[in-house]
Amino acid sequence: MNILNKKNNQITFSAELDESLANAIRRYVNKIPVLAIDEVEISKNDSPLYDETIVHRLGLIPLKMNKLSEKGGEKLTLVTNREGIVYSGDIKGKIKPVYDKIPITVLKKGQELEIVATTKASEGSEHSKFSPGLMFYRNLMKIKIDKDCPKEVVNACPLKLFKTEGGKISVVDENKCDMCEACVDLCRKMGKKSIELIPTEELAVTVESFGQISEGDIFKEAIDVLKEDLEEVAKKISK
Ligand code: SF4
User: What is the pTM (predicted TM-score) of this model?
Assistant: First the structure.
């Protein structure tokens, strides 16, 4: 396993992983319980948005989780009469939003907003507001280049993966190839079959977190929940 790319809230790694197993782990990302605002009482809303729209927006604000086993039930308040945009950072309570600058609504001078919300922990399979992030994967490619490869492919690749050295075309980093096939199409248009993309046994897996828990925890937890379900099935079968 190798880390191919790591940036804020996202990691991409390569692994020799069966596609069906990778897909099962991907599906179990939405089985990890995370926190979101679930019940909302609005006692004042002078803003131009309907109560229902504000409730919807509040539900989609990712909330920081101090531990994976948070159960929810915390009260949060949003009370303001400040003129201008009301942001997620205006929500007060023990649980904090992951991002402070998510706009909720807007108030004019003299307008007020008074809201009490209650959090709940649940799964993305119940509602997408409980989704901790995304996971997707693709095959890593071996790129075979024939000697007659036209030099135009260097500019055809949107990811700039080709280079020429001494008139010879080579690949800078095969692991970054996203199989767009622009290079293959260009060769085809020129009546050549100079480039062949060969899928390897390895997958490039990307996990992206919405911020409630880390991308590493998403992958580990998805595996743990999948294991628990499989053990349950095994127990039932052996009865
Ligand atoms: S398939 Fe697309 S990304 Fe991969 S090398 Fe060819 S042009 Fe570049």
Answer: 0.84
